[in-house]
Amino acid sequence: MRKIPKQERSRLLVESIIDATAIVIAKHGLAAATTARITDEVGISIGSLYQYFDNKEDLYEAVLERIVEKLITLVEKQSLTKEPFTLSVWVTTLLNDVWDFLEADNGLYLQVVRNWSQLDFVSGMDVLEQKMLSVLSVYLLQQPTRISPNTGDLPARLYILTNSILFTLLRYISKPSPLVSRQTLIAEFANMVERSLL
Fold it and tell me: How many CB atoms lie within 10 A of CB 25?
């Protein structure tokens, strides 16, 4: 970002530019998400856009940062719940919340995430991976008597489970299998985590 907005009006403008970028990616795909289309969508001049963003890649990055921030918030919200829950219920609730977020606003972010292979999604995945590993580790530390003694190398299992879920979700979102429903996928993830760790 070229210039950090300080006034409320400028912050709102930057937010509307990021919103417009997501809308254009969702409507037209990443290749057609040009700065001209984005400025048309938000109703500003190209010069106004360039006051805050150097290029369209900066805009794409801002959209991804917003998505990742929201997903991290969902993970944190689920981890802070006061109600007792099983690991299976925790995974199921979290993944349903993630899907609900992606499908909100007529699937706006779902459409954006479908372009993940063309976007620099790696840094966002790294952040999500670390958050998930942290939350799952805390959960397991709070349940020491429930951890199976046959779990082997626990950090390795957590790493494999977290990345299996993240990358399978991305794959499924970008090209859903006609043989696997969303609910079946979530249920299998929940079962896999429960069987692998407890």
Answer: 28
Based on the structure, what is the number of domains in the chain? 2
Task: Quick: pLDDT tens for 158-185.
Answer: 899 999 999 999 889 988 889 999 999 9
Positive/negative CA dihedral, 112, 20, 95, 120: positive
Question: What domain range is 166 assigned to?
Answer: 63-197
Q: Report the distance separating Cα 67 and Cα 19, nearest Å.
A: 11
pTM to 2 decimals? 0.85
CB distance 67 to 113 below 8 Å: yes
The rounded distance, in Å, linking the Cα atoms of 68 and 85 is 25
Please answer whether residues 170 and 112 qualify as being in contact, where contact means their C-beta atoms are separated by less than 8 angstroms.
no
Distance CA 40, CA 186 (A): 38
Residues 39 and 100 in one domain: no
Q: Distance between CA 41 and CA 68 in Å, rounded?
A: 23
Distances (CA, A) of 73 to 25, 65, 97, 101, 119: 23, 12, 11, 11, 22
**Same domain assignment for residues 88 and 117:** yes
